Each structure stands twice: as structure tokens, then as C-alpha cells.
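Recall from the previous chapter that SMILES is a line notation for molecules. Here it describes zinc ion.
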Amino acid sequence: MRYSVYRAAFETLALTGVSPLIRRVSRAKGVIFTLHRVLPDAPAAFSPNAILQVTPEFLEAAIVKTRAAGFDIVDLDEAARRIEAPEKTKPFVVFTFDDAYRDNLQYALPILKKHNVPFTLFVSTALTDGKAEVWWLALEDIVAASTVVVIPERSGPRYADAATLAQKQKLYDELYARHRTMPEPRRVEALHALADRAGLDLGAHCRSLIMNWAELATFADDPLCAIGAHTVHHYELSKLPEDTMRFEIDRSRSIIKAQFGKAPAHFSYPIGSPVAAGPREFAAVKELGFRTAVTTRPGGLYHEHAGHLEALPRISLNGRFQKERFLDVFLTGAIFSMLAGGKVNVG
Ligand SMILES: [Zn+2]
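With both inputs in hand, we obtain:
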């Protein structure tokens, strides 16, 4: 529903050429792009997480078009400086990648290096250890591979049909919503029960998708890359007790410092929506001393964000809008702020 509203707005703006006008009149100083996976293949018919992937060609087009439109591509430190500057600054774009998928090494890094693009890679340390669950893709893979999914429930197993595309989509939506609303320990337990019945090894699944520390070292050693913290387990922070929430944030920074000798200055909230991270999480991140932290709340960056660097909006460069003409719209963070209610939402 939400996506269709955005898509309608994108189509209208992209096709009428209104977006360059908005860009000129916008007060936005810049935008931060969110990316996850970079893969050459078109997503399969059933791929509910396709919104998390773009092609290498699209990434390259985004870089070229960003610069051609007059934006600097900067890192988060420079973005923070420009946000803090009260005067008008040159418009900028920041590229960020969440979760450290292995495809970033094969498909994104060569393009980022070719175009000399600084970027931030947000790492969940237990995913990198291969000891947490990429649960949103595990659910997808279980449903994709099954015609019937056995769902262990208190009253006994439930057999959910997943033979047709429509059945798969409906079941994925149901399972995703259930896992989002369960407390995290219960969600982990439920996912393992589901995976056991489906014969999916969650550890191997995680290790197949996420870079290990040796692979990540390639990024850590690259001057274009800043490694950012993304918690230990990729839990939805708002669901956690206060002490666990703070531990997840602080510990991920300590582990990355122990691995690479440098403490991350930037943080990304897992999932990052208003439900997943709010004032309590923002306060903790600020108190722990991060320079900036990014959400997935859509919006452009304004001087007002200087007082809220721990809750910066981002714009998802995602697979649902993978057409070059949408890039003009992506580059106007203003449209997201307008859709969100006409003003900058810093929560
Ligand atoms: Zn993430």
C-alpha cells in the first residue's frame, strides 16, 4: 500500500519532469541512500526481499547520475559537517550499505572503487560471525523451496500451503508479520523450529549470504570505506529491554574496533523504521557517542538535523524503483518529506 503511494508519486514526478524543479527549490542539503544487496540477476517471481537488491548497472547509474546532477558524493563525517554548517553548502549524497552482504564484495566494491565513491558499510557482528540469522531471507528461502510449510504451533503442526506464487506471497507476508511482532528470543526460537522442519541450516544460510571477517577486511582496509556499527544480532532494538538494547549497540562497536583497530563513528538501526527505533534508541546512541546514526525513515537532510544527528533519515535505493528515471526523484529528498506530512520528521 505504502509502496504503491510512493510509486504513484515517483511515476508522476519522473514523467512530468517536476523533480529537477523541486530539487532547485528544496532546502534539503543532501540525502543518504540506503542499499543492501547488489546482484546482477533479476529477482525470481517469488522474491519478497527484492526491494533489498539492485543491479550493478543501477548502482553505477546512480553514481554517475548523482554527480551529473551536481551532487558531491561524500562520507558521513563530511555530511555531518555540511548539516551543521548554517550556510548553504554544496548538495551531497551519501552511499550506505547495510548488513555486509557478500555480493557487495563481488559486485559493489569494484564499481565504488572505479568511481572513487566513499561509502559506509554497516555491520552486524554476529551475522559476520555466521552466528545470527538473516531471518527475512531465511523465511523467503523456506517458503520458496516448499509446497507445504510445516509451522510448529503450540497445538501441533500447522500445514500451510505454499505451492502457488499467490500462496507463497500470502504465507510470507503472514510469517514476516508474525516474526516482526514476536519478542526477539521467541522469534529466534520460532525461526529455528521452522528451519529445522524445512531442513534449512540457518548458520550455513547466514554464512552464505554475509561476508566473514576476512572478506570484510578488504573493505576495512579500503580508504573509501568506513565500517559502521549495526548491532550484534540485528535485533529490532525497540523490542529489547533497555540494558540489552544498549549492549547490542555498544558491543557491536567494541567488536569492530577489536577486529579492525578502529571504533566505528556511525551507527545504523536494524530495520530502522519508527516502530523499530525511536526516542529511547536515539538517546542511547547519542549518549554512547556516535557521530551520526541513520534510520530508514525517508527524508532529505536539513540544517535542522544538526540537533538530531543520531536520527538521520535515508532514502532507499531499492529494487522496486529500479529505473533510471526514478533517480531524479530519489535525488530530491524533499518528496519523501512531503509524503511524510510536509515537514522533516526527526522523531
Ligand atoms: Zn540491516
